[in-house]
């Protein structure tokens, strides 16, 4: 009886781990995985469903490394590397007000 209880605990832990990995890469499935899988299937020709599932899992594991790295980058570093959008829009060429718009057409 005790061995069966340990096996059930292992199964629950395994299912929770698989669910966590799925949720980690859920947003990448329509954006990255499906288009690249479609191109690969068109170029490779017909293949078995077993190979398609293996390729899907392989690609998800590769994307997982990028996702984990992104989540480990400090927020301050992300803020430093992103451009300041407010300053760029204010002085743009197509601005309708301000000193830049008068000089653009002279």
Describe the structure.
The chain is an all-alpha fold. The chain has a domain at about 1-75. It starts with a helix and ends with a helix. It has helices spanning about 1-25, 30-45, 50-70, 75-80, 85-90, 100-105.
Task: Give a nutshell description of this structure.
This protein is an all-alpha fold and 106 residues long.
List keywords for this structure.
mainly alpha, 6 helices, disordered C terminus
Give the helices and strands, then pairings:
Elements: H1 2-24, H2 28-44, H3 49-72, H4 75-81, H5 85-90, H6 99-104
Helix pairs in contact: 2-3
**Envelope shape:** flat
Q: Which structural class is indicated by helix and strand composition?
A: mainly alpha
Low-confidence stretches: 101-106
Portion in strands: under 5%
**Nearest-integer average pLDDT:** 76
**Rg from C-alpha positions?**
24 Å
Number of helices: 6
User: What is the CA-CA span between the terminal residues?
Assistant: 89 Å
Helix content: over 70%
Number of strands: 0
Biggest β-sheet description: none
- Give helix and strand order, one letter per element, not per position: HHHHHH
